[in-house]
Amino acid sequence: MDSVGCIIVAAGRSQRMNGKDKIFASLAGKPLIAHTINVFQKNNAVQQIVLALKEDNLSSGQKLLDDYRWSKLIKIYPGGEHRQDSVARGFSYLPDCQWIIIHDGSRPCLTGYIIDRGLCCVQETGAAIAAVPITDTIKVVNGDFIINDTPDRTSLWAAQTPQIFRRDIIIAAHDNAIKNNLKTTDDAALVEKLGYKVKIYRGSYDNIKVTTSHDLSLAEIILTNKRR
């Protein structure tokens, strides 16, 4: 492939972690974010990585870089007010990358296989995201918590990251979001609004997003089992 860059977004507030900053929480012997970065550092297809952190975490991020010496991590920068702002800021630090991977820093159980699968899949449409089929029955409710609908779950998938895009597509999507004041937590949704086809590729149920202390315990089990 042409040059591949990765934006790791880790500038959230960890509001559901009882005051603990999940990004630097200890997980299987390392800070959580170190597991995430390691996967991209080890992947041969990825040439460059940039990392968005909260302003008050920048010095901690730099210390991690000094400790781990990730050769591909070329920039640690302050994230924006919203997730999509943090993503948009990362584009300027990857000017030579024709393919952009966007990944949640709080998904430390990612594997290189998922990255490789996404990079193959994105060739078809220029936009591809990891996802897994929904296994629970989903209910659509109104403001009074009364069920309005029960959609057929066979067509429902839960979006994950990595989400991978051709550079011109994802930048156009973010430019359109700024122009029309669109807000979303999912970059693929911005691409969809421009009419591009976004391909789904199979992620993993282990590729969890750590948002609570329970998730942190589950991630510990997943990563420990992978070592065996």
Physical arrangement of strands within the biggest beta sheet: 5-4-1-6-10-7-11
CATH topology: Spore Coat Polysaccharide Biosynthesis Protein SpsA, Chain A
Report the biggest beta sheet as strand number plus sense, adding barrel if it closes. 7 strands, mixed
Structural class: alpha/beta
Order of helical and strand elements? EEEHEHEHEHEEEEHHEH
Number of helices: 7
Helical fraction: 25-40%
Strand content: 15-25%
CATH class: Alpha Beta
State the total count of DSSP E strands. 11
Domain tally? 1
The gyration radius over C-alpha positions equals: 17 Å
Mean pLDDT: 95
Defining key terms:
single chain; 228 residues; alpha/beta; Spore Coat Polysaccharide Biosynthesis Protein SpsA, Chain A; 7-stranded mixed beta sheet; two-stranded antiparallel sheet; 24% strand
Topology:
Elements: E1 4-10, E2 26-27, E3 30-31, H1 32-42, E4 48-53, H2 58-68, E5 73-78, H3 83-91, E6 99-104, H4 112-125, E7 127-133, E8 140-141, E9 147-149, E10 157-166, H5 167-180, H6 187-193, E11 199-202, H7 213-227
Helix pairs in contact: 5-6
General description of the model:
The relative contact order is 0.18. This protein has a seven-stranded mixed sheet, sandwiched between helices. Strands 2-3 form a two-stranded antiparallel ribbon. Strands 8-9 form a two-stranded antiparallel ribbon. It is an alpha/beta fold and 228 residues long. It is built from seven helices and eleven strands. Strand 8 (140-141) and strand 9 form a beta hairpin. The mean pLDDT is 95. The chain has a single domain (4-222), classed as Spore Coat Polysaccharide Biosynthesis Protein SpsA, Chain A, CATH 3.90.550.10.
